[in-house]
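Consider this record:
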Amino acid sequence: MSRAVTVATCALNQWSLDFEGNLERIFRSIDIAKSKGARYRLGPELEICGYGCSDHYYESDTLLHSFQVLEKLLESPATQDIICDVGMPVLHRNVRYNCRVIFLNKKILLIRPKMSLANAGNYRELRWFTPWSKARHVEEYFLPRIIQEVTGQETVPFGDAVLATKDTCLGAEICEELWSPNSPHIEMGLDGVEIFTNSSGSHHVLRKAHARVDLVNSATAKNGGIYILANQKGCDGDRLYYDGCAMISMNGETVAQGSQFSLDDVEVLVATLDLEDVRSYRAEISSRNLAASKVNPYPRVKVNFALCHPDDVAVPTCIPIQWRHHSPEEEISLGPACWLWDYLRRSKQAGFLLPLSGGIDSSATACIVYSMCHQVCLAVRNGNADVLADARRIVHDEAYIPEDPREFCKRVFTTCYMASENSSQETCNRAKLLAEQIGSYHINLNIDAAVKAVVGIFCVVTGRTPRFSVYGGSSRESLALQNVQARIRMVLAYLFAQLTLWARGMPGGLLVLGSANVDESLRGYMTKYDCSSADINPIGGISKTDLKNFIQYCIENFQLTALRSIMSAPPTAELEPLVDGQVAQTDEADMGMTYAELSIYGKLRKIAKAGPYSMFCKLINTWKEICTPREVASKVKHFFRMYSINRHKMTTLTPSYHAENYSPDDNRFDLRPFLYNTSWSWQFRCIDKQV
């Protein structure tokens, strides 16, 4: 009796609407799966068109081109003798569904629509798709003519069904269905399905990977079975980084683990497993078997094909492994670095420019770019021809081989310290030393002439000269003078990004990197249209606390000793005049709150869904050892006042790598008004009453 089944799953770096590239990567994954003996291949969610198409899903072109890609897959000899499970949008009776299309030897076996749609946080699937609500129900789907001509089929099954091969039974889940309280794998497992598949479009969030792994393993721990998960990887065109982690689990234990972060566009995971292990595992779970005897059966699509090897007695099977999780510092080092690489190569630019202030945030951003250079050199050393070709195109040298991260960094990364009369020599030295250690092309310039010219125009027009508060000016004057400096830095950053390579006799332009962290964005502690305004921001979803830990990680792992003095210096904007040659302005004094407090406010506001009153109620207990209720009330009121006054800045926030669940990103993740009644009179009165 055949028992060893070989299955393949993959993580593909698909790109929204890149039908040609997506098809090529799907073919590569199928070729690898077949070469390793797999009889079934699973791909990521909506892999044909790319997951992040957003409102392009409304377009008939997206549906048309998806079917054209499916046609290429069906007619290719590469897809023969292996069950292929691919993802694409399908229009059925004028309703759009997010579907799996499962086919074998030029015949479509089943089109399985998604039943639970992701619609929280960054996900908006209900905007474009409708969930299939007819459990265990199958209808006829009339195929487009281009597909009929290949398959010879006029209609195929469409709906909630499972596949019955000669030797086992397979059932599909799609991403969110694994996370829902009543996951389909529960009932499918009770109905005898032995292999569960899940095609995902799941993005990276710091400290999230273990939750996904635990869900997959728990799916088969109580019910037995084999669980195969595929996921998208990379930046497919927006703020999210899909973090791979393809995996295969059996009976509650991981047997194959894919990488979470890598520059490989195609990663295929293959495992050979013994179906008898599933059957014997289930045999002794009497409660499971009792429930199975009463389950409503799924429609079964019979498939005249065996997944097992014909002579499999001597075929070795996979054994459980221990999942290796990255630390948060490793995640920051790797995730945003891979995202930056995808953005750089796909935007066809020649590198990055970063205003490097000598503070923690811009230094952390520089370290992420340096980590990207490390990843590129490592990938090339490991034989990744795609990365080598991209690197050569970026530096415009067909013979170039990136071997040393510092040397590659010099080619693709420009840092710029923009001094003013309010800048200290210490921050200038820190920026210069860090640039030397990572190898970036570093520029020192002074912005005082530009600042004086701009302020001079105002003085000529109005006859008034604004002054800093330390020289007797009002807070309005001082803030305006600080903002002029900050905004001129943004203008100069874009000027140098466009023309620095031209001035050096090199082709191409540079992408400007921003370096505002998630806490500053939440508080609005930034000038609108200053250096926080950039093309992209790799740290915009990361907290100050995590960035400090990441800096320490870089000191230890990249031997960047310049970071030690950066770590020990108090964060400062350096926009107010120096006092006796020393910095007198600090971020936390300006904000009226600490970065640690900001992280707490952010998590309560977004993750715990707390308004001012609820936040006060939670914090009087959390902080009872360090603050009186009146002090808590004052802190909460100050946060909400500052948050609401500055919320308008989130509408122009630079696109940032999404890494934190309390991100205030206004684009799609954190939808709020940007014109508030900043007195919060009713809410604050409720707090005062409790005080």
